[in-house]
Specification:
Elements lengths: L1 H20 L5 H10 L4 H29 L3 H21 L3 H16 L9 H27 L3 H21 L3 H12 L3 H13 L4 H26 L11 H12 L16 H11 L28 H23 L7 H9 L4 H6 L1 H22 L6 H19 L3 H18 L9 H24 L9 H17 L3 H26 L3 H4 L5 H20 L5 H11 L3
Helix pairs in contact: 1-2, 1-6, 1-17, 2-5, 2-6, 2-18, 3-4, 3-5, 3-6, 4-5, 4-13, 5-6, 5-14, 7-8, 7-9, 7-10, 7-11, 8-10, 9-10, 10-12, 10-21, 10-23, 13-14, 13-19, 14-19, 16-18, 16-19, 17-18, 18-19, 20-21, 20-23, 20-24, 21-23, 23-24
Subcellular location: Cell membrane
Organism: Acetobacter sacchari
Pfam families: FUSC_2
């Protein structure tokens, strides 16, 4: 909720700046703010500065294109197609993926808006608007983010505390909902906490030994959660571990206050494997030890991914995305229905690389758009006529933003719907300056959103449909590599770090598997090894737990080799 409140505050402040500067199409900067807003102050500031630096480079490109295509409609069409293709390619084949689509949306929209302003002001207005679309969100993310967002260290200690409390709850009275939440938290591994650690070190205001202790605590919390979840799922285990919960609760309180425990009273060992493994973790929870496991080398350390220019999927993705944008462009031009230009914005937002992702997110996309559109129309009918000052208008924007942000900051299974809520709400209620009572605008933009969803879905599922099933072997290879490192680890800190990495790799493989299972029947008919993949994922999850429980067991490596041998 705190994350959602801060994101809603950022969107509302962007709208306020847009009202003061009279930025046209104010929905776009509001959407950029919602898309790029980060949880901690450091990442937020970096994202805000970075996106504006990128746009400065792109402005020179836009200026040159406008000079060439001025009074040449065909030239504008070609430029839009080339720019769309370039940004979709960057989104698929480079590390710019989180922001490539937003940048493409802004630049392409600026090009399309060129023919909507007087000829003499074309270049100036297009450049100004493209800059303001990112300058306003960037200012808000840096200035407001530094004021209201927590430090990455505070987020790290809260995440550690959350895992301690979850572990304690699993040892007490686990229920199906708690087990599902524990699975989601466990599969995150160290990914979120590793990012917090990196940003905390970047701030240069925290002591190195404190961050080292918190890094060890993050590893320990993941390992503890894995063991607690395994114990909760074993109904035949009659040994109670509730004597450990007071230690976990007391430590969680300290972490929630932003500190970490140093002199930990070690619980008593009782000679039971699960119990004593947790005791060992708790007794050295924040004691950093030297790590001997070599860090895995990331694939492709450059700006582009290793297969950026060899894998045809990246080019196909760019072509399909460009086709969706251009088809939307031609539809609203041929119909002379300017209000449905939101279909182009939608194309950049909803494109997904595989058919499984497109289908799994289709319901989130449609339901989110319908919820946001309903909020927008109801506010126009019942709220807008009664607004008499800017404060009331901003309160309405804040409430609409909060609903979308709350869903967006939730579990990844529903987060996509949150952005769709914000998309439909902003595009319905933010037209010119101040409150609007124009139902035609809301209707047209909602039609544009639905049209963009339909066109993008049709393009990505009809031409070169990419199946998530084909990506499972690569994810399994990464999972097996993480398991090998965990089994080979010789120290407790190494084992806990590798266990967290294995959970992250296992989560990525499970997500791809889930996407494959929702693809159409004619595609699933060719997935001969789908059941076999499911069994491999289940056995890999068991192996991760057993490696923590009995690291010296001689059959761990044998089990892993057998598991790899049975992989299709």
């Amino acid at each position: 909720m705190g994350y959602a409140l801060r994101m809603a505050a950022g969107c509302t402040t962007t709208v306020l700046i847009g009202e003061i500067w009279q930025i046209p199409e104010l929905a776009v900067p509001a959407l950029v703010t919602m898309a790029l807003w980060q949880e901690d102050r450091t990442t937020n500031a970096i994202a805000g500065v970075g996106v504006n630096l990128l746009v400065l480079i792109l402005l020179a490109l836009v200026y040159g294109i406008i000079r060439i295509t001025l009074d040449h409609p065909l030239g504008i069409v070609i430029a839009v197609a080339l720019l769309s293709c370039g940004f979709f390619f960057l989104g698929s084949a480079s590390k710019l993926k989180p922001v490539a689509y937003m940048l493409g949306l802004i630049v392409v929209y600026a090009m399309i808006a060129v023919d909507q302003v007087p000829v003499g002001e074309l270049a100036t207005r297009a450049l100004l608007y493209a800059d303001l679309f990112t300058l306003a969100p960037g200012i808000v993310m840096v200035a407001l983010g530094l004021l209201i967002c927590p430090s990455p260290k505070a987020l790290l200690t809260r995440r550690i505390a959350a895992r301690l409390r979850m572990s304690a709850a699993l040892l007490a009275t686990p229920d199906p909902l708690l087990l599902e939440r524990a699975d989601d938290m466990m599969r995150e591994g160290m990914s979120g906490m590793a990012k917090n650690l990196k940003m905390a070190r970047l701030e240069k205001i925290w002591r190195a030994n404190d961050l080292a202790a918190l890094e060890q605590a993050a590893r320990s919390s993941v390992a503890l959660l894995i063991l607690a979840r395994a114990h909760a799922s074993r109904s035949g285990d009659v040994v109670s571990l509730e004597d450990l919960t007071p230690f976990m609760q007391e430590m969680a309180i300290i972490f929630e206050e932003g500190d970490y425990p140093t002199d930990i009273l070690s619980p008593t060992r009782i000679g039971q494997t699960s119990h004593d493994a947790m005791v060992d973790i708790l007794s050295s929870f924040t004691n950093p030890a030297p790590s001997h496991s070599p860090a895995p080398q990331p694939e492709g350390s450059g700006f582009f991914f290793a297969d950026a220019f060899t894998n045809p999927e990246h080019v196909r993705f760019a072509v399909k995305g460009t086709a969706a944008v251009m088809f939307s462009y031609f539809v609203f031009k041929i119909l002379n229905w300017q209000g449905i230009h939101t279909s182009i914005i939608t194309c950049f937002i909803v494109a997904q690389p595989t058919m499984g992702e497109m289908i799994s997110k289709l319901s989130l996309r449609i339901s989110g758009a319908l919820v946001g559109a309903t909020l927008g129309i109801l506010s126009i009918v019942f709220v807008m006529p009664h607004l008499h000052d800017v404060a009331a208008f901003l309160l309405l924007i804040f409430i609409g933003s909060l609903i979308g942000a709350w869903v967006k900051t939730g579990d990844e299974r529903i987060a996509y719907a949150g952005f769709q809520i914000g998309l439909a709400f902003f595009l319905s209620d933010l037209k010119d300056y101040g409150p609007t009572t124009d139902m035609t605008t809301a209707r047209d933009r909602i039609v544009g959103i639905m049209l963009g969803n339909l066109i993008t879905y049709a393009m990505f599922t009809s031409f070169w449909p990419s199946s998530a099933y084909q990506k499972i072997p690569k994810r399994l290879d990464a999972m097996f590599a993480a398991l090998r490192r965990q089994i080979a680890a010789r120290t407790e800190p190494d084992r806990m770090l590798c266990a967290a990495d294995a959970q992250t790799a296992l989560s990525a493989a499970e997500r791809v598997f889930e996407n494959a299972t929702v693809e159409p029947a004619h595609m699933r008919a060719q997935m001969d090894q789908l059941t076999q993949y499911h069994d491999i994922l289940s056995k890999a999850a068991e192996l991760t737990v057993d490696t923590l429980l009995s690291p010296a067991s001689p059959d761990l490596a044998t089990r892993l080799v057998a598991l790899e041998a049975h992989t299709p």
